[in-house]
Automatic annotation (TrEMBL):
Record field: transmembrane: none
Cofactor: Mg(2+)
Organism of this sequence: Paraconexibacter antarcticus
Protein localization: Cytoplasm
Protein's name in the database: DNA polymerase IV
Gene of this entry: dinB
The reaction(s) this protein catalyses: DNA(n) + a 2'-deoxyribonucleoside 5'-triphosphate = DNA(n+1) + diphosphate
Active site location: 104
KW Oxidoreductase (keyword) present: no
Length: 353
């Protein structure tokens, strides 16, 4: 049986969820963002993207580019609820699923007679159940599925063999490929490698000299659209966290939870980018009197899904119930690399703060 993997990603996820309950805003540029001085855009509707607005852009700048945009504050509870419906339908389609975030998942379609029809049906089901549009990529590995799902957004449906992916993206910059970031792209450029075709044709030995024996050949393989063919990735041993000090101390549980979910989302994106997962989820809370507390929980299976990390972080925060206003919040995922630890224990770790 050949490997067939699909990547499904909801279009303009947060903005689309907001538009479902504000249909009068349809067709207008919409930006989902907080409104503090350092707020950044979480997502922009496709109408706002035409003005050059994009995720992670400072909101002030986004409003300069698109002064008529409607600014909507994020409501992570609503996104989580929508995500749960989507992921239930995803899991109803195939057994093997790797959830990568609130709005994206890989599906192993290897056992299906008609993978395309199954994915068309799933998109229709998601649309009927939630009103959300999704883009789908299908290919022989995760890399091709991911790039294909991005290629014709919104409402994309792209099926590619490896050869077709190589031909279609030959002239694109190496950065198109997940895992090749700005710094790597700059270093490739110094070597005269500015397209995926050039990367695919590069000498792995030469790249090994510049990027090391592992990363060099890996880069060439990425250029050739070779990638993981199973949904269980090899995990590295590291730990990652995100924390944020607020402009004004926060006392309200709803706002604290929103901030926590924002951090969990950022953290999970970072973990997913590097294909890392962990089993220990921890929060850090610093009160206005500088009391600093951490709480952690270790779960049975490694995760980097924001639906897990966000939920456990929220539970830990609810259990701690900060007795005073909070000046700093942090979220950490630790114990990577399948390190064996006793499962499902709630521990109050004395983590360094
Ligand atoms: P994406 O799937 O990357 O983006 P998107 O769904 O908004 O748009 P599209 O897939 O059509 O290109 O991310 C999913 C959600 O995650 C997004 O709606 C908001 C959130 N997000 C952030 O909060 N910060 C970010 O930097 C990014 C990229 C996304
Ligand atoms: Mg999306």
């Amino acid at each position: 049986m050949p490997t067939v993997i699909a990547h499904l990603d909801i279009d303009a996820f947060y903005a689309s969820v907001e538009l479902l309950r504000r249909p009068e805003l349809r067709g207008r540029p919409v930006i989902v963002s907080g409104d503090g001085p350092r707020a950044v855009v979480t997502t922009a509707s496709y109408e706002a993207r035409k003005f050059g607005v994009g995720s992670a852009m400072p909101t002030r700048r986004a409003l300069r580019l698109c002064p008529d945009a409607v600014l909507i504050p994020p409501d992570f509870g609503a996104y989580r609820a929508a995500s749960e419906v989507v992921m239930r339908l995803v899991r109803g389609t195939v057994d093997e699923v790797e959830v990568m975030g609130l709005d994206e998942a890989y599906l192993d379609l290897g056992g299906l007679l008609s993978p395309r029809a199954a994915m068309r049906r799933l998109v229709t089901e998601i649309r009927a159940a939630t009103g959300l549009d999704a883009s789908v990529g299908i290919g022989p590995n995760k890399l091709i599925a991911k790039v294909a799902s991005d290629a014709e957004k919104p409402r994309g449906f792209v099926v590619l063999t490896r050869e077709q992916a190589c031909a279609r993206f030959a002239g694109h910059p190496p950065r198109l490929v997940p895992g090749i970031g700005g710094k790597t792209a700059e270093r490739l450029e110094v070597l005269g490698i500015t397209t995926l075709a050039a990367l695919a044709a590069a000498d792995p030995g030469l790249l090994a000299e510049h990027f090391g024996p592992r990363q060099g050949p890996w880069l060439v393989a990425r250029g050739r659209f070779e990638g993981e063919e199973s949904l269980q990735a090899v995990r590295e041993a590291v730990s990652e966290s995100r924390e944020s000090t607020f402009d004004v101390d926060i006392a309200g549980p709803a706002e604290l939870d929103a901030q926590l979910q924002r951090l969990a989302d950022q953290l999970c994106r970072g973990l997913q980018k590097h294909d890392r997962t962990g089993r220990t989820i921890a929060i850090k809370v610093r009160l206005d009197d500088w009391t600093t507390v951490t709480r952690a929980r270790t779960i049975a299976h490694p995760t980097n899904a924001v639906e897990h990390v966000g939920q456990i972080a929220a539970e830990l925060l609810r259990e701690y119930a900060p007795p005073r206003p909070v000046r700093l919040l942090g979220v950490r995922v630790a114990s990577f690399g399948g390190v064996e630890e006793p499962p499902a224990q709630t521990a109050q770790l004395a983590l360094p703060v």
